[in-house]
Amino acid sequence: MRIVAIEGTAWAASAALFDSETGEVFIESDPYEPDSGGIHPREAAEHMGDAIPDVVSAVLDRAAETGDNGAGAEIDGVAFSRGPGLGPCLRIVGTAARALAQTLDVPLVGVNHMVAHLEIGRYGSGFDSPVCLNASGANAHLLGYHNGRYRVLGETMDTGVGNALDKFTRHVGWTHPGGPKVEEAAAEGEYHDLPYVVKGMDFSFSGIMSAAKDAYDDGVPVEDVCRGLQETVFAMLTEVAERALSLTGTDELVLGGGVGQNRRLRSMLEEMCEQRGAEFYAPEPRFLRDNAGMIAVLGARMLEAGDTVPVPDSSVDPNFRPDQVPVTWRDGEES
Ligand code: ATP
User: Which of 29, 69, 108, 288 has the smallest number of Cβ neighbours within 10 A?
Assistant: First the structure.
């Protein structure tokens, strides 16, 4: 089966071709890079409008080169990220996906972006039923499968983890995205103490970010604040991930989301898993940050399960939670 997918929930205008027989995932992405400040929804949507036709064309060219029957042939379905994300961006992606599916006369598959972050880890690891830590820009949560759905075992009570780091870096005048700059600066710094906020299975970043901004304004070296931020925020995520493993009795952890590119976060999770005899898997970076590859891989499984959406019912949902998704593609697997 070959499936084309389109992703554009926030900053990455991305299209992909996935061949479920060869396992090949071809991804073409064009990131939106704000001149200043963070992601501006209107500008991001304008970027989607400009970039989506080009990334889709590149993927269709690839499909034509690798297929037997010429352009557009041998594509069995079109998947798209239906949410969660920025409404103006999602609407452009939805329109592009509907148009493409109708042009190719193939079924349309509406994919939850956060479930795709999880499933690409499950696909890459071959794990049976892992807990997933989604550490992305706009989200931070732990997911575990139970009784036909991915349940949210714990989540941020305010901002997503990447957005929290980005807000701090905006405060110090660094360009977007801030996460990689925090990682780089932290390597040069000494640990600076910041508030640690975990409440049961949930956690909060807003107080830490205010304290980090105050520390910087009070003259604490930015490298030290970055070191404190990484150690504190990632220790919180690691604690909750460990509790999720313990509660579910699972010994498999996968990582999802753009913040998962951070080496310190990965090493903390790896060490925790090693200490409790669990297995840890982090997908390669191109599958961690937003990308259409993960939408294509999950889209193919949904299509195989007959989980398609008629065009009139295919509206996008900026607040689409992972636990709203009936998991149709795991039939016959253990819960
Ligand atoms: P979501 O997937 O929830 O819709 P999103 O679209 O904003 O979120 P992702 O592509 O998953 O984003 O992640 C982008 C985030 O990852 C940004 O906030 C960025 O600062 C952060 N990030 C990227 N690289 C690193 C890194 N090395 N360390 C920490 N954070 C990072």
Answer: 69
